[in-house]
Write a structure and sequence with these properties.
Layout: E1 2-3, E2 6-9, E3 32-37, H1 44-55, E4 59-64, H2 67-73, H3 81-89, E5 96-99, H4 107-112, E6 117-121, H5 135-139, E7 143-146, H6 154-163, H7 175-183, H8 204-210, E8 221-227, H9 234-244, E9 250-256, H10 259-266, H11 275-283, E10 290-293, H12 301-306, E11 311-314, H13 330-335, E12 338-340, H14 349-358, H15 360-384
Parallel strand pairs: 2-7, 3-4, 3-6, 4-5, 6-7, 8-9, 8-11, 9-10, 11-12
Antiparallel strand pairs: 1-2
Helix pairs in contact: 6-7
Length: about 400
Amino acid sequence: MIRNGSHAVEDEDQGEPSSSSLSPGKRKRVIRVWCDGCYDMVHYGHSNQLRQAKAMGDYLVVGVHTDEEIAKHKGPPVFTQAERYKMIRATKWVDEIVEGAPYVTTLETLDKYNCDFCMHGDDITLTVDGKDTYDEVKRMGRYRECKRTQGVSTTDLVGRMLLLTKSHHSNVDDTAYQLHTDNFGKGPKGHSPWTGVSQFLQTSQKIIQFASGKEPQPGDTIIYVAGAFDLFHIGHVDFLETVHKQAEKPYVIVGLHFDQEVNRYKGKNYPIMNIHERTLSVLACRYVSEVVIGAPYAVGKDLLDHFKVDLVCHGKTEVFPDTDGTDPYAEPKKRGIFRILDSSNNLTTDHIMQRIIENRLQFEARNQKKEAKEMAVIEALKDERGEDPHAG
């Protein structure tokens, strides 16, 4: 279907095959796709957009905005531009990134990087003046659209960190978290459909879309790492890249602990992302071959034998004892296949939390400003269509 002069595609990649699915003989040329954004606090929603963009062509170019541009149009980013560039480079569907991409997407930019069209989610991205950043490419028919991934937003993740509740990974009703889902970043005129919070529902289809589907091959070195990998960030990327470099043909398996296990050894309101969200975030990393969902805390004989693990790695972070006080890495140490790695990046989820808390008022103001601009656009669209501006 056509929407606002753009082509909308379904999240599950149904419909016409992309050019990358055609045989080389039938393919006329390489289709280059452009995406751009802030990509601050990269989560599986961003990754899903990039996955869908790559499926629409053969080669994906991603433009990432500078800190200065983001501060001007939205407010302060959580991560620096250098960190954000590296995060996008580590996303497995990305072929090339453009550092310091302009905030407003123009035909000049698409032509400069030989891109056929740009792709974005079905939310609205506005400049500081409240204008659609994709207006020009939409009018010229060089814009494609995908459905925004439900259940996650940077706004929601920031809110989870600030609230210090555990309701985002438990079944316990919590009035504080409910109040957050109702009010966090809410503008004076109500909720924008793009900024509001919704709960993520995992499906087997989504996991399949993110997974590589590749089995280990003869000659591969099977490397196992385990942890929470919460709020998947540049510290994790640097560690996994270091792990990946431990062998000529690495097959990296990441064991993800269940939410209750993570909360046992991390405390507070950790994990910020639940097990389903963390699974997709890790699967999107180009250094990861496979994920074990709900891996046992102790890396025991059964796990090592089942996956035929050659090497077990851990970073410089503290290793917490198992519930019975034992070392969770006792077995790989006994086999002589345990290795401590230093990625030279000390960033942790705790550090990210600290960044958020220190800038809480700025982030709340940013969210309210964003919400107000989106609501103004909604009212204007309703007015254009002759709808009751107070309905819905």
